[in-house]
Amino acid sequence: VQLVESGGGLVRPGSSLKLSCVASGDMFRIGAMSWVRQIPGKGPEWLGTINEDGYHTNYARSVEGRVTMSRDNTKNVMFLQITGLSTEDTGAYYCTRGPGSAQTVPPRRTWGRGTQVTVSS
């Protein structure tokens, strides 16, 4: 199953973005999925996980309150909405197969190609 992210771009501080992740196969069969970001100069950061039916989510404390994950298995698409963007949110955002946590980032082989988010005034 391949994952393709979209929705990134250049935005001003304080803006919001909704990133999409489309799966090439049956998303429900993938099970839990996550979002990860890679900020320049830092290691990969797990942002959150959504379970297979979309009813349960866990978010990293660093972004909790600003991000919302959702999925529509009928359309094989998952979303990450981020509000209150700051320059510190600049980086590449990836959807991944499988769960993650603050201590465990899903392995790189499970990531999509990523979408770049740049926050700048």
Helix-strand layout with pairing:
Blueprint: E1 3-6, E2 9-11, E3 17-23, H1 27-30, E4 33-38, E5 44-50, E6 57-59, E7 67-72, E8 77-82, E9 91-97, E10 115-119
Parallel strand pairs: 2-10
Antiparallel strand pairs: 1-3, 3-8, 4-5, 4-9, 5-6, 7-8, 9-10
Description:
The structure is a single chain. The protein has 121 residues and is mainly beta. The protein is built from one helix and ten strands, in the order βββαβββββββ. The strands form two sheets. A six-stranded mixed β-sheet has the order 2-10-9-4-5-6, with no helix packed on it. It has a four-stranded antiparallel β-sheet with strand order 1-3-8-7, with no helix packed on it. A hairpin with a 6-residue loop joins strand 5 and strand 6 (57-59). The longest helix is centred in the first third of the chain and has 4 residues, at 27-30. The radius of gyration is 13 Å and the shape is globular. The chain starts with a strand and ends with a strand. The mean pLDDT is 95.
- What class do helices, strands and sheet pairing give? mainly beta
The mean pLDDT is: 95
Tell me the distance between the termini: 37 Å
Going across the major beta sheet, what is the strand order? 2-10-9-4-5-6
Number of strands: 10
Uncertain ranges: none
Key attributes of the depicted protein:
single chain, 45% strand, mainly beta, 10 strands, 121 residues, four-stranded antiparallel sheet, six-stranded mixed sheet
Characterize this entry briefly.
The protein is mostly beta strands and about 120 residues long. Helix content is about 5%, strand content about 45%.
